[in-house]
Amino acid sequence: MGRGKIEIKMIENTNSRQVTFSKRRQGLMKKAKELAILCDAEVGVLVFSNTGKLYEFASSSMENILSRYNKAPESSELTTIENVAAEHEWQPEVNELRAEVALLRQMQSRLMGKELDGLNFKDLQQLEHQLTEGILAVKDKKEQVLLGKIEKSLLQEEKVSLENEALREQIEELRRSSRHCEERALALDNSVCDSDTCLRLGLPVDTSQNMIIPKMESTSNDAQNTMVLE
């Protein structure tokens, strides 16, 4: 007779529960390993016992498996149903946006001179008017850009002119300072020359005194001679 069907419920006996956990855990790890080898699948198994002990199996690396799992998109049936419902809800707006994009692309092509088939005379006139307005707007913008560049150039020229004027003033100040220094040096040289001349020739007052003194000595000698003769 075959084995009877085991009722799936928690085993009340602690020892029996621990034995069953150990056997089934080993069987689970074995099946996971066989699945990875036979089907070239990347398998990872994590098991926590009722005491909190961790048991794990990974066909490659548990970190790589967990990282791949976290990056994988959700594919549950509930998520699929929600996506389908949301798609149906937004479908009218999506269709409207697609129509607007197609119309804009057609207008862009016609502005470039393409896809003109099917346009009547009035449509062509309207397209020509749009192109003319666009060209005028481009010319106005171009003129504004050029005027801005000219204004900027004038401001730069004025700035350079002011800088040149300031440099010229500095140069003139340096020249005036140089001339002043030269004049002071020349005056100092003349003063030194006059002093040297006076030292070589002697002062007039001192010369007159030196000339008078010998005369006075001669007079005194004459007086003494006169007194001796008497």
TrEMBL record:
PROSITE patterns: K_BOX, MADS_BOX_1, MADS_BOX_2
Domain MADS-box stretches: 1-61
Source organism superkingdom: Eukaryota
Keyword presence, Transcription: yes
Keyword terms: Coiled coil, DNA-binding, Nucleus, Transcription, Transcription regulation
A GO MF label: RNA polymerase II transcription regulatory region sequence-specific DNA binding
One GO cellular component term: nucleus
GO terms (BP aspect): positive regulation of transcription by RNA polymerase II
InterPro entries associated with the record: MADS-box/MEF2_TF (IPR050142), MEF2-like_N (IPR033896), TF_Kbox (IPR002487), TF_MADSbox (IPR002100), TF_MADSbox_sf (IPR036879)
K-box domain span: 87-177
Protein name: Agamous-like mads-box protein agl15
Gene: AGL15_2
